[in-house]
Amino acid sequence: MSYVHNAWYVAAWSHDIAQLKPFAITILETPIAIYRGESGRPVALEDRCVHRLAPLSLGRCEGDALRCMYHGLLYASDGAVVEIPGQEQIPPLARVKSYPVVERHSWIWVWMGAPEEADEGLIPSAVGLDDPNYILGHGHLDYTAEARLINDNLLDFSHLSFVHAESFQAGPEFAQTPGRITPLARGIRYERWTENSTGSSSRKSEVPMDSYMSYDFLIPGILLMTGGVFPLGTAEACGRSAPNLEDAIGGVTFTSQAVTPLTGKTSRYFFSWGPRRDHGDEAHRDMLMGLAAKAFAEDKVMIEAQQRVIDLTHEPKVMPTAHDKGVTMFNRLVERLAKSERVAN
């Protein structure tokens, strides 16, 4: 599976990048050192000293520069070596790659492609932990599995009826009827109405109601989902199209999720979830995060087991079903964009 390089990948939560303390992360098989110098601005450099390939993430911040603590080479924030102890002349090629980096929505985003192509307008509109309209919990999980398998899982919600029968208690509807899939410029949109239902474990109701959920799944692997509970008959009244969330009588939440490929068979999964402030409180957030912990553990068991089976299978092939429309559309988009990058290079 190919991955798009001209895209913004989530490298860390903002608060995980402490000032003057370098942070190591691998994205798309590429080791990266992220640090905040005295200015507090995040910097992302190739995590590999030009001298003897020691990791710069074990280095020391000096102002807004980073010193390798093996033999002391000092790197400016653009990756250029500006000092070599005991040597006046600095070779013109003494530099490491620097990566465009943006801090937004409580995440550190790194552009893995051509720096001149970096477009901050392509950063998906996640909801940050400091958003005043939401009360969010957050976390991350490390997977021993290819990122594509996690993306496929998030693009096909029919698995909720089976993998999450104990946690989300979604019922058979997700498997019996596909959601509505709409193509987007850099992803897909999934929408679903569940009518005349008392809801799942995250949106329980004492009386039948209509529940709406919608998410965008965007390059390179970002899920942004919201929804709410509406009076019975709302779905029919609005033609089963997207409702105005201001009309919801409860259950409005938001989750931002990001899948980051580390190596070919390892990935990091970032997530936040919580209620809109007028639809819940800290206790509600904690309930949702408890559900998420159980559900995401269920996903992890299944996906890592799936990866082990794939690794033992000669020329593994999948047989798509009706629920794979979103998976197919998104993976074709990824392949098309990745191919265009290869042609350009």
UniProtKB/TrEMBL annotation:
The keyword Oxidoreductase applies. It comes from the Bacteria. CDD domains: RHO_alpha_C_DMO-like. Keywords: 2Fe-2S, Iron, Iron-sulfur, Metal-binding, Oxidoreductase. Residues 8-110 form the Rieske domain. Coiled coil: none annotated. GO terms for molecular function: 2 iron, 2 sulfur cluster binding; metal ion binding; oxidoreductase activity. InterPro entries: Cholesterol_7-desaturase (IPR050584), Rieske_2Fe-2S (IPR017941), Rieske_2Fe-2S_sf (IPR036922), VanA_C_cat (IPR044043). The keyword Ribonucleoprotein does not apply. Gene3D superfamilies: Naphthalene 1,2-dioxygenase Alpha Subunit, Chain A, domain 1, Rieske [2Fe-2S] iron-sulphur domain. PANTHER family: 3-KETOSTEROID-9-ALPHA-MONOOXYGENASE, OXYGENASE COMPONENT (PTHR21266:SF60), IRON-SULFUR DOMAIN CONTAINING PROTEIN (PTHR21266). This is Rieske 2Fe-2S domain-containing protein. It comes from Croceibacterium soli.
